[in-house]
């Protein structure tokens, strides 16, 4: 078989999926090369790490009998077969980027919740918050009167193991605040405010 490879992300960094596919096909005696428009291919692999936020898709080639798209940029429902996943990658695909270099995973998962990244969903979130960027929260306040205000999450970030929730008009919140002074729904906030007012009335009596 003649195999063509398309690095949709643009050869800016080694694509480990394509490196493993190349190694597997070469082990089967197939010919592997970067796709170009004047060849004829039995199969072409198109792979990308990032979605369209960073890597726009490219047109499917017309000179291939079969086209297979994969990688996290196309979604999380595609996986390499075990015999390909665990093969030694073909570093010759990226000779300039992989000289005296080896790629692998020391850890998987991520504590962050960046809106543009799927690592946490794919490999596991080390700590999962019940809210994310763009969500609306409801917070209690005491001054000048007791009440409830609406806040919007602008980012969720982690530094040195501490996760904080950045908001549009309420500063920075801690993950421990959720469910205590900050709530996921207005109904929860109203119930908490009512309970606080009843406790204050008992104190006055």
Describe this entry's structure for a reader:
The chain is an alpha/beta fold. The protein folds into 2 domains: 2-93; 130-204, Roll (SH3 type barrels), CATH 2.30.30. The protein has 4 helices and 9 strands. The longest helix has 19 residues, at 186-204.
What would a concise description of this structure say?
This protein has helices at 16-27, 82-85, 119-123, 186-204, and strands at residues 2-7, 31-34, 43-47, 67-70, 136-141, 147-159, 162-167, 172-174, 182-183. It has 205 residues and is α/β, with parallel strands linked by helices.
Output mean pLDDT.
Answer: 85
- Low-confidence segments, given as residue ranges, are none
In whole angstroms, the N-to-C terminal distance is 86 Å
Using the alpha-carbon principal axes, give the shape: elongated
Q: How many individual helices?
A: 4
Strand and helix order? EHEEEHHEEEEEH
Q: Helix amount, in percent?
A: 10-25%
Sheet having the most strands: 5 strands, antiparallel
Radius of gyration over C-alpha positions, nearest whole angstrom: 25 Å
């Amino acid at each position: 078989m003649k195999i063509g490879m398309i690095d949709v992300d643009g050869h800016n960094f080694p694509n480990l999926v394509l490196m493993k596919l190349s190694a597997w096909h070469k082990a089967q005696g197939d010919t592997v090369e970067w796709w170009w428009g004047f060849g004829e291919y039995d199969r072409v692999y198109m792979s990308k790490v990032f979605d369209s936020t960073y890597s726009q898709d490219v047109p499917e080639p017309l000179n291939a009998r079969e086209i297979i798209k994969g990688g996290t940029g196309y979604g999380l429902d595609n996986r390499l077969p075990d015999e390909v996943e665990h093969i030694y990658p073909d570093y010759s695909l990226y000779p300039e980027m992989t000289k005296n270099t080896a790629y692998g995973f020391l850890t998987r998962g991520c504590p962050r919740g960046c809106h543009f990244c799927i690592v946490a969903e794919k490999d596991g979130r080390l700590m999962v918050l019940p809210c994310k960027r763009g969500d609306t929260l409801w917070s209690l306040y005491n001054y000048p009167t007791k009440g409830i205000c609406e806040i919007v999450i602008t980012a969720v970030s982690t530094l040195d193991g501490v996760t904080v929730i950045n908001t549009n008009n309420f500063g920075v919140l801690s993950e421990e605040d959720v469910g205590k002074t900050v709530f996921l729904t207005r109904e929860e906030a109203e119930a908490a405010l009512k309970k606080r007012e009843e406790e204050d009335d008992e104190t006055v009596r």
